[in-house]
Structures are given as structure tokens and as C-alpha cells.
Amino acid sequence: MALLAKGLVESSAKRTLSSLGDRSQYIGMSDIGRALECPRAAVGKKLFGNGAGLEVSQHDLASMLGTQLRLQRGHWFEAGVAQVFRTQSLPVIEQLEIQAHHNQVPIKAHLDFTFVSAADQPTVRILELKSCENIPSTLYSSYETQVYGQVGLLRALWEKPAFGVHGEPDMAGCSGLTFPELCRKMLGIQMPADASLVDIEAWVLCLSMSEAKAFGPYLPDKSMLGLCLQTAEDLWTLTVGVRSNGGDIFDLPTAKGFHALCPWCDFNADCPKFEGVDQPQWSPDLARLARLKADVAALDREISEVEDGLKTAYMLSDVGGNWINVDNQRFRVSSQSGRRTLNREQLRLELSAILGEDDCDTLLARCESEGKSFERLMVSKINRPKERSHGI
Ligand code: SF4
């Protein structure tokens, strides 16, 4: 387990260096997405990398493995999907790199897959892969920012020598080409010199272990590109400032309110958002709570398995919708109607059209009530770092 955890961290660092280069020397699109969520975590990651300095005790090993497997699943998915596209001989550029400078800030975008077609209407489709535990119903804003940056840069720099691909053992690299030059060189496809003649879209494909969902299209948008570039500049300024002050990220702005990524953040140990006092005497209670929650989760899984088994058995039986009696209990599977929900936004739109916005809001406010406030216990993991070594 320890060898696997260490190997995952090291192989990830090597792969990142070979495919994305030295990430401390530029701002990438994922840095921009992260900075919009939490500038402190984004700067920390640029300076100290991803978890390389984390202390790994035997106790934490399973959780660290879990984190690494989650982080690296994306690379493995990408390699598998690339294989699928290669088998189909599709006109696709893998890991297209776009280099830009904005107010002296070096920026690079790496696009997982860029499909190109000159037939009829010249077309470019960017596909960004994301691996997820569960497919989200709406796309995270950090992913959207990333693809808006990618598609915006591709459109804006189309005729500039800003494009290339990294060399791989089985693929020659190149750089400093315009996008039409790169298409000619890599795919033998002649694209127009004028980007306005091309239909350009970006899509995000979310993959879990058993599901897939595509989000898009995301079109080139000047204001979204402007936001990306401004965020890149702000992040670069913060990073350079922190590097010159000895690497102290303590006072940088943090994510506001609840942030789902805080428990996974490598910089949460000394994050000012979680300012607190040491009281180690509560350790046995927290450990017991964690054990009990794990027991509940395991019980829930077991209950689902038994219920699924009984449902399958009922479906395969020939009792014709009757109950099955078992000693002093009985069971049956029947169809239930789904839960009815009220779409508040839709209702607001419809009422506004009839009553006008002000009366509609007053009416909705009169019909709404707020439940009693309650105490909620929040327990969150502290990722204690070893001595940090500077990435830049
Ligand atoms: S713990 Fe949360 S708020 Fe603090 S740096 Fe990490 S992501 Fe930002």
C-alpha cells in the first residue's frame, strides 16, 4: 500500500512534467479555475505542488491512496479514451498546447482532444475530459472557466504562432505554429486562415466508472476570455509576491463560505478560514464518530444489496403481483410514483409574466417560510504538511 501510494505521487509528478512542462513557470487553465474558487489554494499548488510534501502515516495511508486514485483516474481515463479515438482514425490532435502572454504573464492551455474537419463547414470541437466519482447535474464553474479559456484562446490566437504539441515517445512534438499550420502538419487538413469562417465549440465530457455525460457547447466569448486572462494575471502577481516573501501563503484570500474542496486541500492545516485551538482530548470521540459513520455507510450499502436481491427475486418469481409470505412477514414489489417537486424558478418566471416581477416576489415571499435554525456538527480533515519545499 505504501509503495503504491508513493509510486502514484511520483509517477503523477513525472507525467505532469513530461506532458505539461514546468507548471511553476506559467499559468494554466486549471490554475485559473482553481484561483476563481480559492486564490490561496491556487497559489499554494503553484508553489508547492500537489501533496508531494504531505506527511503519510500508516493511519493516513488508505485515505491518501483514495485521494491519489481519485486524482489519477482522470489520466487513466484520458489514455483509454485517446486509444478509442486512435482506433477510429479520427482527425484529432491530442494535448494541443496554446501559449499566450497577457501583460507579461505567461499562460498555457492544454487541450485534451481537438477534433478538426474541413469538410463543408470547417469545424473545430474541443473535448475536455473530466473524471468524476458521480456525474454532476450541472458542470462545476471551475471546469467551465477552463474550457471558456481554451476555446477563447484558440479563437483569439488562431493565426498567431502560438500552437504546438508536446513530443511523446511515439509522437514528434512541435511548437510556434498557427492553428491552420498545425492542422496541415499533424492531420494534413487545410483550415481557413480566418477563424471567423470556422464553427468552433468546446465540450466537457464527464466520465465516472459507469456513466458518461457531455456538457456544452461552450463558444468563444470575449468577456469570459477577459475574465480568464485577468484571473491569470492576479494569480501570477500573488504567486510572484509569495515567492519573494519566502513562501508564506497564510494571508492570501481564501474561498468564501462552504467549499467542498477544503477537506481535500493540501493547504488546509494552517488555513485562516479554519482558525482554532488545539484540544487533543477530543480525539477518541472523533475517532468513535468516524467509526460509527463508517458502520452506518457499510450498513446502508448492505441494506441496498439485500433489497436489490429481494426485488430481483420477486421480479423473477411467478407470483403475479401477489405478496410473498415468509413466516410472519410478507413482501411485494410495486411501482410507486416519483416525488413531485416544485420548480421555484419556473414558477417565478410564470408568475412574473402575469403579475409583474415585484408582485410576484412579494407573493412568493408571503408563501415562503423558513425552518427553525439548528446546530450542525462539522468535522473536517486536517492535511498536515511536512516541511514544504518551494516549487518556484
Ligand atoms: S482549506 Fe479551503 S479555503 Fe483554505 S486554502 Fe484550502 S481550499 Fe482555500
**Largest sheet properties:** 8 strands, mixed
Strand content: 15-25%
| N-to-C span | 31 Å
Discrete helix count: 10
Structural class estimated from helices and strands: alpha+beta
Q: Which sequence of SSEs, written as H and E, runs from N to C?
A: HEHHHEEEHEEHEEHHEEHH
Low-confidence stretches: none
The molecules bound to the chains, other than polymers, are: iron/sulfur cluster
Question: What is the top-level CATH class of the largest domain?
Answer: Alpha Beta
Mean pLDDT: 88
Radius of gyration: 26 Å
CATH topology of the largest domain: Lambda Exonuclease, Chain A
Helix coverage percent: 40-55%
**Number of domain modules:** 2
- Choose one word for the global shape: globular
Number of strands: 10
| Name of the CATH architecture of the largest domain | Alpha-Beta Complex
Please provide a written account of the structure:
This protein has 392 residues and is α+β, with helices and mostly antiparallel strands. It has two domains: 2-274, Lambda Exonuclease, Chain A (Alpha-Beta Complex); 277-316. 43% of the residues lie in helices and 16% in strands. The protein contains ten helices and ten strands. The protein has helices spanning 2-20, 29-37, 39-48, 61-87, 141-156, 179-187, 222-244, 283-316, 344-355, 357-367; strands at 27-28, 92-102, 105-117, 123-131, 163-165, 174-177, 199-207, 212-218, 324-326, 329-331. The strands form two sheets. Strands 1, 2, 3, 4, 5, 6, 7 and 8 form an eight-stranded mixed beta sheet that branches. It has a two-stranded antiparallel sheet with strand order 9-10. Helix 1 (2-20) crosses helix 4 (61-87), helix 2 (29-37) packs across helix 3 and helix 9 crosses helix 10 (357-367). The longest helix has 34 residues, at 283-316. The protein starts with a helix and ends in a 25-residue tail after the last helix. The model has no long low-confidence stretch (mean pLDDT 88). Iron/sulfur cluster is lined by residues 38, 40-41, 254-255, 259, 261-262, 265, 267-268, 271, 273. Iron/sulfur cluster binds at residues 38, 40-41, 254-255, 259, 261-262, 265, 267-268, 271, 273.
